[in-house]
## 1
Amino acid sequence: MATPRGSRPRAVVTRRIPQDGITLLESFFEVDQNVDDRPYTPDQLAEHARDADAVVALLTDRIDEAFFARCPQLKVVANVAVGYDNIDLAAAARHGIAITNTPGVLTEATADFAFTLLLACARRVVEADRYVRDGRFGGWEMMGFLGGDLAGRTLGIAGFGRIGQAVARRAGGFGMHVVYEDEHPATAAVEDQFNARRVDKATLIGSADYLSLHLPLLPSTHHYIAEAELRTMKRDAYLVNTARGPIVDEKALARALRDGEIAGAGLDVFEREPAVEAELLALDNVVLAPHIASATVETRTKMALIAAENAITAVRGATPPNLVRA
Ligand code: GLV
């Protein structure tokens, strides 16, 4: 239940976040936090937020017209994520509510994890770990667990924003060639810095030995990788998705992995989280992670602090540092 309004502004925090963020919020707000760490139902969320000035939301919260209509005091939704596809921006604009995100601080952690998945699937780390644990390691084998090289191979990056560029920087250290696709070309200086060449989508998909996705989820990027794209990828290519699940047609990907249309995949995100396509669970050539690309202590702490700062600034009546525009 919502607590009665006191003299201080009120913030709802929809799940557990690092304590530093809560402490900063408490310096300004009366805070109502969901400490169960299970997402509120839409009804619970609206009930808690009905007299709140700020909501500090997670990407598991659906923030839409029906929610805004029930929260007349609300001034800001501070999403603790760089992505904000869980929020209806047009509805927020209609209700005059500021929406903020947490860009920048999670770039390196997310790029690290894209590379973690890339290496894990190319070198079959999870499969090999299971093999040893199952007691099946009977001695060194010349032909055991053969995977893919990185040096000299082409990394395709779809979406060349902050995270895509941070992945490109890592690729340089591994001796890879980088091509990218983005509707906005990077400057010549950025392309030179990362030794990256802009190509069209068909070239990206057809030439990548490793394809890493760093696009926002928009109507135009839904199923960016579907059956037709998977068919034109190289048979020894690997796909990595640390962006958003619906960017890939998960059923089509499971079929392509099963039929050997591509060599493997590393997925941190899923089309219908927390559900995972059943067929993927049975395959050895895919590494699966529970949406943890930004999950380091430092990064998640910074995300919570930035969200708190956004919420406080907006309720004070100033423009928050990470205002998202519709
Ligand atoms: C995580 O997926 C984020 O958008 O920050």
Note: The radius of gyration is 22 Å.
## 2
Amino acid sequence: MTIHIGAKPEQIAETVLMPGDPYRAKWAAETFLDDAELVNEVRGMLGYTGTWKGNRVTIQGSGMGMPSLSIYANELLKNYGAKTLIRIGSCGGMQPHVSIRDVIVAMTASTLTSPSRGFFKELNFAPCADWSLLRAAVNAAEAKGTKTHVGGIYSSDVFYDERPDLNEQMVRHGILGVEMEAAELYTLAARYGARALAVLTVSDHLQTGEALPASERESSFGDMVEIALEAAFSG
Ligand code: HPA
């Protein structure tokens, strides 16, 4: 047990999928895992462990934003020995060729700041995905026929943004989408010798103002869970 995760050490798998929303962790575990068992409900941040095609996997909510994700990722990596962490979540599209429902596999994650900023001080660390996971996720997405983009994303600290000029710079530099967690996940995985990836569904678009209808959120989220599971266990 840790401060924020009530599971016994053996109740957490080496592979952990991390949606921001704890209810999505519940839905994904009930939909895709065999013998899913609730292993955490501290602060309502639900976590489940079960098997997928015979492989043990935990699906643990991370909460929204890098400070929240940092708490769960730190405890999973340091106290539970997690080796593979895959964020599954949504993002806002930032480029004209990126549409809602598309999937983004994040090669890098830029930030303005992050919980690790104080630690790195003058250094600008470049958070990047694990190559083996990235390649496997792209293969899985292509096999499913999902329209997929691979490239850089922006992990922002704010959803309600008062600095549109920052987004403009990200767009200008080819950044595909904006979310709020991946950069710290990649940084922590690097620090503790683990593998990390973020697989994201484009749920809204900053330029067109389009948004995924609530009725479609579940099915597009399901594609992403399958891509993440295929990537985690691709050998
Ligand atoms: N901004 C930040 N995070 C997000 C967004 C967004 O537009 N959409 C989904 N996650």
Note: Helices lie at 22-32, 66-78, 117-120, 131-144, 164-172, 182-191, 214-232.
